[in-house]
# Entry
Amino acid sequence: SISLALPAASLRDSTWSSSSVILVPITSLLYGVADFLGGEASRKVSAASVVVWSGVLSFPPLVAVALAFGGEATVDDYLIGLAAGAAGATGLVMLFAGLAKGRAATVAPLSAAIGAVVPVVVAVISGDRPSAWAWVGVALAVPAIALSAWTDDETGSVRVGLRYGFVAGLGFGGFAAIIGLTSDDSGLLPLIAARGATVLLVLALSLAGVWALDRFSEAPRAIVVANSVLDVSANMTLIVALRAGSFALAAVAASFYPAVTVILARLVNGESLRKRQMVGIAGTLVALALIAAN
# Structure
């Protein structure tokens, strides 16, 4: 049966190991750049196409790296990976659906904040106990992440946007929380099942008529390839960071990727940064420093 407990290393102590200190910022950077590229690609083809083709392209190298990394995954580990992939796909579906309806101002920040909170709740229930200063960092991180992702798109129903954002956040947070249930001995192997579940679920929704699916030849191929490499790399660094020390702290710190996406939108597309976004970005840096000092 599936064991609903975090890896033993997370339960023994709540220190944020040196490995996590290095890997978590890298994870946020990778996710942030991947999301930015995914958004750029979605301007030319449907978001579902980006998710599916990115997943298909990243699957073979993921399998190769996971096998080279080694490990002994049980059936439970693969089942947990499937559940994590389904959760991640749900987050993507709800995020893109909410954004497509013009509710970015409520969907994006709420999904980012909830995505940071869910793993913390799971970790605390499982026995993870960060220090007092680390909790200050967590408390600062949640609103800071929301502020950094807060756009000015106020069209559409706020109430409906909140529903999309809340479910999307549960999906993103669920991925981190669920994938953390895999055993340390499984290495990166559960990510194979997770990636497969994400692609198959989004593909099934597309074939069911929920989204249109464009051919790969119609997509900006270089961007999609880069997105696939960065996204799967972020998944790899995330799962290693979650096992390296405090599960709660690693999960929250890895959720700072919206700030990276916003900064890239400013640098590449010349999008203006609102004061609240600048405050949010500054807040995420302070929160990260507090968490790292744990």
